[in-house]
Amino acid sequence: AKTIKVGDAFVYPKHANIVTHGPNATAQDVYDLTLQLSTAVKEKFNIELSREVLLLGEFKNAAGSRPAGFY
């Protein structure tokens, strides 16, 4: 999981539970990265992760078909 990167968003190399970003990352990059991480954890460990932060704005889901996470 520490090697997963979406756009300019990536997992902190020293701790897989920290998502960080470079100067060109978008909020959608960070959102998509967290979806990929959740999927990887579910597939490998059969554990469903729950989001601890609130999302501000609208984000496309992995299929790109509808907004998700609007608060």
Description:
There is one protein chain. The chain has 71 residues and is α+β, with helices and mostly antiparallel strands. It contains one helix and five strands. The strands form two sheets. Strands 1-2-3 form a three-stranded antiparallel beta sheet.
Q: What structural class do you assign from the helix and strand content?
A: alpha+beta
Sheet with the most strands? Answer: 3 strands, antiparallel
Q: Name the strands of the widest sheet in spatial order.
A: 1-2-3
Range of helix content? 25-40%
Query: What's the SSE pattern?
Result: EEEHEE
Summed up, the helix count is: 1
Cα gyration radius (Å): 12 Å
What is the overall silhouette? globular
Q: What share of residues are in beta strands?
A: 15-25%
The pLDDT mean sits at 85
Outline the low-pLDDT stretches: none
Compact overview of the structure:
With 71 residues, this protein is α+β, with helices and mostly antiparallel strands.
Record the SSE blueprint.
Elements: E1 5-6, E2 9-11, E3 19-21, H1 27-45, E4 59-60, E5 67-68
Antiparallel strand pairs: 1-2, 2-3, 4-5
Highlighted features:
two-stranded antiparallel ribbon; single chain; alpha+beta; 3-stranded antiparallel beta sheet; 5 strands; 71 residues; 1 helix
